[in-house]
Design goal:
23% of the residues lie in helices and 26% in strands. By secondary structure, the protein is of the alpha+beta class. The strands form two sheets. A four-stranded mixed sheet has the order 4-1-6-5, with helices on both faces. Strands 3-2-7 form a three-stranded antiparallel sheet, covered by helices on one side. The N and C termini lie far apart (104 Å).
């Protein structure tokens, strides 16, 4: 049979109702579920410690200037235990953490998050004289008024504006939030407003 005859036979068979095998139907590829964003988080505790006489605790971070006690929260600790530990190390003061001033949540880079919890506290012993226990962290500590702090900003320098800012806020009667505001997700849910500290 010639090639022309073979082609004619195929055409005739199609006309007669014979069907060619159907092409395999391709299913659309399933879309992958979107990936949840992950963040590397760094946490810090900052402490605004106010003496009963109205002065605030300031620590000198070597060449960086005067600031408020604060430090990095490691994986074995939390905001509150870190606040007590750094205040003791940097100023030699045992502090009673009484409330929360603000939680700061800042995206500092792709996949990098910084959390700073600003806490309010008072000295356990009002008669204590501030004196850094860890000289590698600080080389000075003292109780200061806001006016003294402003003068120090011009003469000795401040590491940042936080102590003046939060000191002014507290002095003007700013809201101090209860400690249970920050808790692990499995903590009991309170059934009533917590009593004042």
């Amino acid at each position: 049979m010639s090639s022309e005859e073979a082609e004619q036979k195929v055409e005739n068979s199609t006309v007669a109702g014979e069907q060619k095998p159907a092409a395999t139907e391709q299913k659309p590829a399933q879309a992958k579920p979107p990936q949840r964003p992950t963040f590397q988080t760094t946490q810090f505790s900052l402490v605004v410690c106010r003496h009963p006489n109205g002065k605030f605790l300031a620590v000198k971070k070597h060449e960086k200037g005067w600031w408020l006690p604060g430090g990095f929260v490691d994986h074995k600790s939390n905001f509150f235990t870190t606040a007590k530990a750094v205040t003791k190390a940097e100023a030699g003061v045992d502090v009673k953490i009484e409330g929360i001033l603000r939680m700061e949540n800042t995206l500092v880079g792709e996949g990098q998050l910084r959390l700073r919890l600003v806490l309010y506290g008072t000295p356990v012993d009002p008669n204590v004289v501030p004196n850094p226990q860890d000289k590698e962290l600080c080389d000075g500590a003292k109780w200061v008024t806001l006016q003294e702090l402003r003068e120090m900003s011009e003469t000795e320098g401040l590491r940042g504006p936080e102590l003046i800012g939060w000191g002014t806020y507290v002095q003007n009667g700013g809201e101090i939030y209860p400690l249970p505001l920050v808790a692990p997700e499995n903590a009991p849910i309170p059934t009533r407003k917590p009593p004042p500290s």
